[in-house]
Write a structure and sequence with these properties.
The protein has one domain: FAD/NAD(P)-binding domain, CATH 3.50.50. Strand 15 and strand 16 form a beta hairpin. It contains 11 helices and 20 strands. It is α+β, with helices and mostly antiparallel strands. Helix 1 runs parallel beside helix 4, helix 1 runs parallel beside helix 8 and helix 8 packs antiparallel against helix 9.
């Protein structure tokens, strides 16, 4: 708390960022590169070591807009470009194609391995003055008028730090503590489970991403390189019971069922690796800021994987917060301006993802015909198609 005699209170850091995933690392890197003028002291806190995160094999979808934002920090050399997105629905007419050249872009997006992206961003952060506390867990924070007291726990024991602003970028801080998250949290259970893995096909289409809607949920296939560019990152959304059953199938039977659900546009599915499953739902904070604490990325919202918007939205959160803190300093005013700036983009992106996740799983023939008409109409309404594509690639960053 403030000293009654006017002495400035002691702070260990101006800003503490909890979570060293892609969003937390990007925020730390961007803030550090602007600290020559703002002179911000930054702590980055994560329970994992950088080496553990670098070995994570999951695939991530990044838009071209995210690539542009991340370029000053570095970008993985093994990223696979996406130059065409094919959207259709299984068993019904209607499809739309999104091409990179019709938007005058070199690529629409990229598929990157989680470990590769974290590795590139970690290298960028290591070259700065950010104080990176690895193998360290953040406990329940306590904030007052002047700042935030944050207890930390590591193998060397417990201690506390004082910061002016606390950023939750990991999605677990508030759930682990008794602190009220900024605003109310709304949630939706989609009644779906995503099966993920890496599949190979007999007739690959280079740099083409597929979003195929079925009665159970969407199937996404994202090109991720591999031998002859035949490997794709799979996200297969289905009912929890079907997901549990399919997770128990042998590889050949699983691939046969996947082929029946997706179709033969890329020939046969010949291999599946690293199968895993997780439930799907929407969680989103109505407000991002509570006095001197702020949530971004998965701490602020977790989305259905349809259209691959979760990470891209989180990175836009991080860049907007960087702008606010660099301009106004680690003060509540900066956080309030950040929250206001993020309102429209979050509303549009979360709303679009939620709508897609729900309307394309209504297995009712007349409704499927309406969806088909909508997909086909996009081909004849270039301004509408362009607006939708640009929202997904760049969001609203004003």
């Amino acid at each position: 708390m403030s000293d009654v005699q006017g002495i400035e209170p002691h702070f260990d850091y101006d800003i503490a960022i909890v979570g060293a995933g892609p969003v937390g690392l990007a925020l730390a890197g961007w803030l550090a590169r602007r600290s020559a003028t703002s002179r911000l002291s930054i702590a980055l806190i994560d329970a994992r070591t950088p080496e553990a995160a670098a070995n994570d094999p999951r695939s991530l979808a990044l838009s071209h807009g995210s690539r542009v934002m991340l370029q000053p920090l570095g970008f993985p050399g093994d990223a696979t470009p996406i130059r065409r997105i094919h959207v259709s629905q299984r068993g019904h007419f209607g499809r739309t194609l999104i091409e990179h050249d019709e938007h005058e872009l070199p690529e629409l997006g990229y598929v990157v391995r989680y470990g590769s992206l974290v590795g590139a961003l970690a290298d960028a952060v290591r070259s700065t003055k950010v104080h990176w506390l690895t193998d360290t867990s953040a406990l329940a924070p306590l904030q007052d008028h002047d700042g935030v007291t944050l207890p930390l726990q590591s193998s060397s024991g417990e201690r506390t730090i004082r910061v002016k602003v606390l950023v939750n970028a990991e999605g677990g801080l508030y759930q682990k503590s008794d602190v009220t998250a900024p605003g109310e949290r709304r949630a939706r259970d989609y009644g779906q489970t995503a099966i993920v893995g890496t599949v190979s096909v007999s007739d690959p289409r280079a740099n083409v991403a597929w979003e195929r809607f079925t009665g159970e949920g969407p199937i996404a296939l994202l090109p991720c390189g591999g031998q002859r560019h035949a490997d794709y990152s799979l996200v297969w959304c289905c009912t929890p019971d079907e997901a549990a059953r399919r997770m128990q199938l042998d590889d050949d039977t699983f691939l046969a069922e996947l082929g029946a659900a997706f179709g033969s546009r890329m020939g046969r599915f010949t291999r599946i690796a690293s199968r895993a499953a997780f439930p799907l739902g929407l969680t989103a904070l109505d407000g991002l800021v509570d006095r001197r604490t702020v949530a971004i990325g998965n701490a602020a919202q977790t989305l259905h994987p349809v259209a691959g918007q979760g990470l891209n939205l989180g990175l836009r959160d991080a860049l907007a917060l960087t702008d606010a803190l660099s301009a106004d300093g680690p003060r509540p005013l900066a956080l309030a301006r950040f929250a206001q700036r993020r309102t429209l983009d979050r509303r549009l992106t979360i709303g679009a993802t939620d709508t897609l996740a729900r309307i394309f799983t209504v297995d009712f023939p007349p409704f499927a015909a309406v969806r088909g008409l909508a997909l086909t109409a996009l081909e004849f309404l270039p301004p509408v198609k362009s607006a939708l594509a640009r929202q997904m690639m760049f969001g609203q960053r004003r």
